[in-house]
Amino acid sequence: MLIELLFPPRCPGCGSGGAVACPACLVGFGPPRRVSVRGLPVFTLADHAGAARALLLAFKERGRRDLAAALGALLATALPLLPLPPGPVWFVPAPSTRRAARRRGGSHVDAALRSAGVPRAPVLGLASGALDSVGLTAAQRRANLRGRVLLRAGPVPPAGAVCVVVDDVVTTGATALECARVLRSAGFRVPLALTFTSACKTEPDG
């Protein structure tokens, strides 16, 4: 396209031209690692730092939806490595506030899942009154989400289906825990959650 010839894409991780996301920056995402969150196994692909953080923020907050394919490919590679039960699995994007979703042009996590080509179930929403979690403490995050994550009306996975909560970054685990609680209350099985990056401690390998 002409626009790409005039303004070639630049990797948000390092600024190099000619690639939406360069291989050297994508290498910062690895196989799933367990995160230290009580109450739900949470896995992440990278620490929320360096090139991985820059790529995720560009995708989430700076309109770089062209990164969906690269991030979706990371998900597709990671999913077979997760300790999931055999059989069908549905991937549920964690909800954003309505204001944030409008600003971003929709759910960025769902866009990555769509690109990954996996069974998606965007069935969760946030009730009015929920705040953006940036800057909140762990206790404030829990209080902010308590009772405000809702199951949307419309098509849902089959009764008893296995669902994995997917979010962009885990900071305290409050979002993943509340999403899992709502899904379990509706009769779904939630063995774990997955995020692109983690701002909290990951457990050592082995």
Automatic annotation (TrEMBL):
Cross-referenced InterPro entries: ComF/GntX_DNA_util-trans (IPR051910), PRTase-like (IPR029057)
Q: Does the keyword Acyltransferase apply?
A: no
Alphabetical UniProt keywords: Glycosyltransferase, Transferase
Q: Which GO terms describe its molecular function?
A: glycosyltransferase activity
Q: Does the keyword Glycosyltransferase feature in the UniProt annotation?
A: yes
Which SUPFAM superfamilies is this protein grouped with? PRTase-like
Official protein name in the record: Phosphoribosyltransferase
